[in-house]
Design brief:
Number of strands: 26
Bound molecules: flavin mononucleotide
Radius of gyration: 27 Å
Oligomer: single chain
Largest sheet: 8 strands, parallel, barrel
Number of helices: 21
Strand order of the largest sheet: 3-4-5-8-9-10-11-12
Helix content: 25-40%
Strand content: 15-25%
């Protein structure tokens, strides 16, 4: 045990009803792994692996704990339908000396998906700030019935072996909506003043205490600062926490950030935020509730950061959401002196994108989320060792190479660049991208450890590959920009209009600002494009982004898009929707003209110093035909199969290596 390096993180916590083996909690994460309202084996495996990996407490995703919550992706706990599933789930986690707490939550009027909620309920008939969903106002009788159902569900969960429950009253959900003067305009006993706004939650806490045993754990996720004017700031958050903790019924408080508003992205700060951005305000709020353990959450990715927070007395526990999705053995590795083997969360929020699109939780940097043997996994040996050539040193090729070699294959990897990482490496050098280096750094370390032979800085020809007499070639040669179809081909040959990625390579390292505007034609809508645009904003007087769609950032999760818009607004970047490049775009006098996609009318940018484009990439597969002609078993992975993001690349690299 590396308890010398992480003494606070590894120290047990004994306070009131809480008795935990260390200070690490798994924050509630919606997995979309339940089916037909029932517990599935992958849901059990996902949580059991986080317990095996060291977490002392795990909060589940929100369960169906009241009869109005009949959603197939939420496990039913409000009736006896799946007692066996609940019991197997609890046993699989608790047997590893890890407390399993079920989350009680209702989104109320909040909605993460596009469009308005048709089934939202709330304190008042007021729209949320994001989806403009107007909820049905709950009647006092309904509130009391709901409290009874939540409390009965807590009792049922305890009977099934759960150690406790966490009420999610932050993140802009139903209880948060009742707590906030911004969303609760009632004048009955569940609103009106501070005490009235707290009544729903206070009565629920009391009801759970009555219905469950004295040992049952009860955590509160409370708003710490929701960032909405007139709602809950840290001062009001402290008052709320103080009032709710007075009874001694809460075993811990986890302060959360943001709301169902333009601050939705505060829930899960991405890679553009500083690390542990809420540590100071957590410490400040903790002082308001002496005696109640406080759990810090939000962009704590490294064991040293967690240790520092605890050592500086800013929190009593540290909760990790995304970092434990990426590496369930995060703590076990740190405790075992192997922090360098942690596969780090890169805070890209692709995981959030998957669940909002109603797919099971997945991760850019962990292709095995929910696998039965996920924690501290080592690839099993193949029955026969093959000669494998991987062409391409991006994250698809690297993932395939290290796993294939760890399985006992003899692997050579050709990379065109002297440094592997491909387009992910480029992105990591752009504004906000630094954490992405964790993806290829881990892969490279593992590949070298497994004995992969690297041929870097080599544009491998078919002959180079064939000379190694491979049994299988994994082609991971990536993609290249497509030329904008509305532009004359002659311009491409002249090279006057570069693509954003090629341009970024030439601009990196420059600092001097240039007069005039950089005009970006955005027909890509992925994050890498906006990272280049931020770089351009540092180098040019003015940046104009034109897109043929009605808005930008259409192909990134909503939380990511909020951040992109906020940064672009702060940088003064001009967005021109529903405009595209045309044959008339490049004008002789240094101006650029963009045509309206519906009327053709031209919009002029008079002082253009640069015109660049980002279009859907096309696969780079030139080696496929000659290798197939030579009778080689060729398999395409990553962008050269179909251009997509990091998640698809690592997933396909993993799958290809496992199929060898
Ligand atoms: C994919 C995803 C799903 C989440 N689902 C929930 C949820 O169901 N309930 C909840 O209270 N918080 C949920 N959260 C928020 C996390 O519990 C946590 O507060 C947040 O991710 C910040 O912690 P982190 O930086 O360690 O990821 C979710 C976050 C993510 C990324």
């Amino acid at each position: 045990m590396d308890s010398a390096r992480y003494p606070h993180l590894l120290a047990p916590l004994r306070q009131g009803r809480l008795a935990l083996r260390n200070r690490l909690a798994h924050a509630s994460m919606t997995t979309r792994m339940a089916q037909d309202g029932r517990v599935t084996q992958s849901l059990i495996d996902y949580h059991a692996n986080r317990a095996i990996g060291g977490a002392a407490l795990i909060v589940t995703e929100p369960l169906s704990t009241a009869s109005h919550q009949r959603l197939p992706h939420k496990v039913r706990a409000w009736n006896d339908d799946d007692l066996d599933g609940l019991a197997r789930w609890a046993e699989a986690v608790e047997r590893h000396d890890c407390r399993l707490l079920a989350q009680i939550q209702d989104p109320g009027r909040g909605r993460h998906e596009r469009g308005r909620s048709q089934a939202g309920i709330g304190p008042s008939a007021l729209p949320d700030d994001l989806s403009w969903s107007v909820p049905r106002m709950l009647k006092p009788g309904e509130i009391r019935r709901m409290i009874d159902e939540f409390a009965a569900s807590a009792r049922r969960l305890e009977r099934c072996g759960f150690s406790g429950a966490e009420i999610s009253a932050g993140h802009g959900h139903l209880f948060h909506q009742f707590l906030s003067p911004w969303s609760n305009h009632r004048d009955d006993e569940y609103g009106g003043d501070f005490t009235g706004r707290l009544r729903f939650l206070a009565e629920l806490v009391a009801a759970i205490r009555v219905s469950c045993s004295a040992a049952f754990l009860l955590g509160l996720k409370l708003p710490g600062d929701d960032g909405v004017p007139g709602s809950i700031d840290p001062a009001l958050a402290a008052e709320i926490a103080r009032a709710l903790c007075q009874s001694g019924d809460a075993d811990y408080v986890c302060f959360t950030w943001g709301s169902h508003a333009r601050t939705l992205d505060w829930h899960l700060p991405d890679m553009h935020w500083p690390r542990a951005p809420f540590a100071e305000v957590t410490a400040q709020l903790r002082r308001a509730i002496p005696g109640t353990p406080v759990m810090a959450v939000g962009l704590i990715t490294d064991p040293a950061e967690a240790e520092g927070l605890l050592a500086q007395d800013k929190a009593d526990l540290v909760a990790l959401g995304r970092p434990l999705v990426t590496d369930p053995a995060w703590l076990a590795k740190a405790a075992g002196g192997r922090a360098g083997d942690i596969r780090y969360c890169v805070s890209c929020n692709s995981c959030w994108g998957t669940i909002v699109e109603q797919r099971p939780l997945a991760c850019d940097n962990n292709p095995r989320v929910g696998a039965v043997d996920e924690a501290d996994w080592k690839p099993q040996r193949a029955t026969r060792s093959a000669r494998v050539v991987v062409v391409g040193g991006g994250v698809a090729g690297l993932e395939a190479a290290w796993i294939a070699a760890a399985r006992g294959h003899r692997v050579t990897l050709f990379g065109a660049s002297a440094e592997p990482g491909g387009s992910t490496r480029l992105h990591s050098r752009l504004p906000g991208g630094e954490s992405l280096s964790s993806v290829y750094d881990y892969q490279q370390v593992m590949a070298r450890r497994a004995g992969v032979r690297f041929e870097l800085g080599v544009h491998a020809s078919a002959q180079d590959v064939l000379s190694l007499q491979p049994d299988t070639v994994l082609l991971a040669t990536g993609s290249k920009p497509g030329w904008p179809v509305t532009l004359p081909r002659i311009w491409q040959e002249e090279g006057f209009v570069p693509d954003v990625r090629g341009l970024a390579r030439t601009l990196l390292g420059r600092t001097e600002r240039q007069p005039g505007a950089a005009v970006v034609f955005d027909q890509d809508h992925t994050e890498g494009t906006y990272a280049v645009i931020e770089l351009l904003a540092r180098l040019f007087e003015h940046v104009v982004v034109a897109t043929p769609r009605e808005r930008i950032a259409g192909d990134v999760p909503l939380v990511t898009a909020l951040g992109i818009h906020r940064r672009m607004a702060r940088l003064g970047i001009e967005i021109l929707p529903l405009h595209e490049l045309s044959a008339e775009s490049r004008l002789e006098d240094g101006a650029v003209a963009l045509a309206s996609v519906y009327t053709g009318e031209l919009h002029f940018v008079p002082d253009a110093a640069l015109l660049t484009y980002s279009t859907p990439r096309v696969p780079e597969t030139s080696l496929e035909a000659p290798l197939l002609a030579a009778g080689i078993d060729v398999r395409l992975i990553g962008d050269c199969r179909m251009p997509r993001g990091v998640m698809a690349a690592t997933a396909e690299g993993y799958a290809a290596a496992m199929a060898l």
